# Entry
Amino acid sequence: MLHVHYRWECSGIEDNTLEEALAQIRSSRRIAPRRLPFVERLIEMLTLHLDPIDEALAEHLQNWRLERLSAVDRGILRLAAAELLYFPDVPPKVVIQEAVRLAEAYGGTESPRFVNGVLDALYRRDRG
# Structure
């Protein structure tokens, strides 16, 4: 999923859709058939709710603006926030843990702590 978001953002979000980015990824990479429904559902939620997702994230970015984050960190946060906000069937702690793992693998040295802090604050706000 992160690859889809990254491709979408780097190709120019005004000229491309997440669905088009997914199609491009699918033409060059194999996505397990059992994962595809979840990936498509996540793409749909992100497409439908990008503004509320970005607004929710912005509330928890202390001294940062979403557009100033790296494309990788922004993608991880958006995908995880979409799950936290619109996927009640996915355990929030699993969402946060997976986002932190992605940040460890693809982000900068501070990315895991940063991603964890933002998503934990979003999760706590939603529960409160």
About this structure: The mean pLDDT is 91.
